C-alpha cells in the first residue's frame, strides 16, 4: 500500500472535524492500514476517551417507559431511576390493587353499603409504602442505600410516588360509588393517618413490623366499632374524621423529627 492518510487529516479525523469525501476515504483506509491506525492513536488523545464513552453508552441500561416519561416531565435522572425501581409501581402490584378495588366496588353494590370499601381503601396506601422501602421487601434496597440521596428524602420520594398512584386508583374507585356522595371519600383521612403513622414508627420498629402493627390496629378498631352498634363506624363519622386528621398531623411531625434516624438504621442494615 503506497497511499496513507496525511497526519493533519488523521488529527482532524480524531477530533471529528474531517469532512467528506476525505472522511469516507479515511474510514475505508483505516480498516486495512495498521500504520495509519497507529498514527491516529498517537495524534488523537481523545480516541480512547471516545471509545470509553461509547462503551458506557452501550452498557448503560435502557430507560423503560415509566422512567423515560419521568425524565421528560423534568424529573432528575437518578430520581427517575429510583422511582422506576420502586417494586410497587410495577404492573403486578398495580394490577393487584385494581383487582382488589374492582372486587370491593362490586361487593359494595351487592351489599348496598360502602363500609367494606371504606375499611379496605386506607390499607392499600399503607401496604404500598411498606413494600416500597426496606431491606426485606425491596430488591433494589442496596442500590438505593448507596445512592447519593439522603435516606429520608429517598423514602419521601417513593412515598409520594406510591401515595399518588394508590390514592389516584382509590379516587377512581370512589367515582364508581356516586350514590354515596361525600361519604365515599371518608377513607382519605384514615389512609393518610395510617400511612403517616406507619412511616413514623418505621425507624423504631422496622419497615415490615411498623405497617403490619398499624394495619392490625386499624382492623381491630373496625371490628370493635362494628360490634358496638348498627350506625356508621366511628372512624367514618365526623368525630372519627377529626381524630384521623389529628393522628395524621401528629405522625407527620414525629416523622420529621425522626428523619435522621433513617440514615442510621439503613446504614446498619447493609
Biggest sheet layout? none
- Global shape: elongated
DSSP E strands, number:
0
Structural class call reads mainly alpha
Question: Low-confidence parts lasting 5 or more residues at pLDDT below 50?
Answer: 266-270
Mean pLDDT: 79
Distance between the termini: 61 Å
N-to-C order of helices and strands:
HHHHHHHHHHHHHHH
What is the radius of gyration? 29 Å
- Portion in strands: under 5%
User: Helix coverage percent of residues?
Assistant: over 70%
The number of helical segments is 15
List keywords for this structure.
mainly alpha, 270 residues, single chain
What is shown here, in short?
The chain is built from 15 helices and no strands. It is mainly alpha-helical and 270 residues long.
Protein described:
This protein has 270 residues and is mainly α. Helix content is 71%, strand content 0%. The protein contains 15 helices and no strands. Helix 1 (7-14) crosses helix 3 (34-43) and helix 12 packs parallel to helix 14. The radius of gyration is 29 Å and the shape is elongated.
Amino acid at each position: 500500500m503506497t497511499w496513507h492518510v496525511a497526519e493533519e487529516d488523521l488529527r482532524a479525523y480524531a477530533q471529528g472535524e474531517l469532512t467528506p469525501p476525505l472522511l469516507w476515504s479515511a474510514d475505508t483506509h483505516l480498516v486495512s492500514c495498521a500504520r495509519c491506525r497507529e498514527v491516529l492513536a498517537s495524534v488523537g488523545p481523545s480516541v480512547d476517551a471516545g471509545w470509553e464513552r461509547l462503551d458506557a453508552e452501550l452498557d448503560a441500561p435502557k430507560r423503560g417507559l415509566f422512567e423515560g416519561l419521568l425524565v421528560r416531565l423534568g424529573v432528575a435522572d437518578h430520581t427517575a431511576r429510583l422511582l422506576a425501581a420502586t417494586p410497587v409501581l410495577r404492573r403486578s402490584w398495580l394490577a393487584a390493587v385494581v383487582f382488589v378495588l374492582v372486587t370491593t366496588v362490586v361487593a359494595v353494590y351487592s351489599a348496598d353499603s360502602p363500609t367494606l370499601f371504606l375499611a379496605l381503601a386506607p390499607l392499600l396506601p399503607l401496604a404500598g409504602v411498606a413494600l416500597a422501602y426496606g431491606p426485606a421487601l425491596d430488591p433494589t434496597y442496596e442500590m438505593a442505600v448507596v445512592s447519593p440521596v439522603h435516606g429520608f428524602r429517598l423514602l419521601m420520594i417513593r412515598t409520594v410516588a406510591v401515595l399518588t398512584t394508590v390514592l389516584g386508583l382509590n379516587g377512581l374507585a370512589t367515582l364508581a360509588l356516586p350514590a354515596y356522595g361525600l361519604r365515599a371519600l371518608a377513607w382519605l383521612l384514615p389512609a393518610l393517618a395510617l400511612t403517616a403513622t406507619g412511616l413514623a414508627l418505621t425507624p423504631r420498629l422496622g419497615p415490615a413490623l411498623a405497617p403490619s402493627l398499624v394495619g392490625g390496629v386499624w382492623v381491630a378498631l373496625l371490628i370493635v366499632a362494628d360490634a358496638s352498634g348498627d350506625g356508621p363506624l366511628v372512624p367514618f363519622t365526623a368525630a372519627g374524621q377529626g381524630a384521623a386528621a389529628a393522628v395524621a398531623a401528629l405522625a407527620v411531625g414525629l416523622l420529621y423529627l425522626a428523619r435522621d434516624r433513617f440514615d442510621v438504621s439503613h446504614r446498619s442494615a447493609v
